[in-house]
Amino acid sequence: MSTPAGAQPSPGRRDSVRQRVAAELRAALIGGELTPGQVYSAPALATRFASSATPVREAMLELSRDGMVEVLPNTGFRVTEVTRAELDNLAEVRRLLEVPVMGDIAEQHSDEDVARIRSLSPLVEAMQRAEAANDMVAYLTADTEFHTSFLSLHGNPELVQIVRRARERSRLHNLLPLAEAGQLTASTLEHDQMIEAALDRDRARMQQLVAQHIGHVRGEWAGR
Questions:
Q1: Sign of CA pseudo-dihedral 100, 106, 110, 113
Q2: CA 150 to CA 156: how far, in whole Å?
Q3: Which of 93, 110, 153, 176 sits most deeply, having the most CB atoms within 10 A of its CB?
Q4: pLDDT for 203
Q5: Are 67 and 80 in contact (CB under 8 A)?
Q6: Is the dihedral angle over the CA atoms 180, 211, 27, 132 positive or is it negative?
């Protein structure tokens, strides 16, 4: 239901809008839809993300604290550049953390965790729909939720936050061309294979899949 003219949205609704806009902006930055070095105004981004300017400004200020954008007073926000060396370092951090931890999850998860692992399947389906629609913001939003939810089974929220930030600082400029050419499907299906490896308690298979998956970040997903 829309908010009546002149009325202020409830705090809960404001938080929900801000969180949605922040998630979509992060995904647009990671997916290369917002160009490094280019300046964007809050009103222009608000139109793009079907929001008012206030949650966009709040989200961009949050992104600036993470180093993803630079605040330009009275102008807008400049998307920061990330060097190839920085991207390689971020991918290395992910491999060092995610490969052994996901292996642990596959091998050591409890019986109670099985339902949580199975519940990740709808996120894979969301990625498949987004890929078919060439909607990389929706794709990356579901992708991030999948990986961070899976990692949360390890029980270390600090690790999840480190991985989330490493993912967010990456830039994947080649995702849309791959989706348009129908070449992203195999990578998308690796998520289903991770679920199967976990349910089979197959540590070696899980580690191989995760290493291969992270390899896409500095390979074809980045246009290399």
A1: positive
A2: 11
A3: 153
A4: 98
A5: yes
A6: positive
The amino acid at residue 153 is L
- Count Cα neighbours of 58 within 13 Å in the Cβ-side half-sphere: 15
171/82 Cα distance (integer angstroms): 8
pLDDT averages per 10-residue partition of the chain, 224 residues: 44 72 84 84 90 90 87 90 85 95 97 96 95 86 94 97 87 70 84 98 98 80 49
Cα 41 off chain centre by: 23
Can you tell me the distance from the alpha carbon of 122 to that of 137, in angstroms, rounded to the nearest whole number? 17
CB atoms within 10 A of CB 217: 22
Residues β-bridged to residue 39: 78
pTM score, two decimals? 0.78
DSSP string of 28-78, one letter each residue: HHHTTSS-TT-EE-HHHHHHHTTS-HHHHHHHHHHHHHTTSEEEETTTEEE
Contact criterion met (CB below 8 Å) for 90 and 170: yes
Per-residue pLDDT at 3:
43
pLDDT at residue number 7? 45
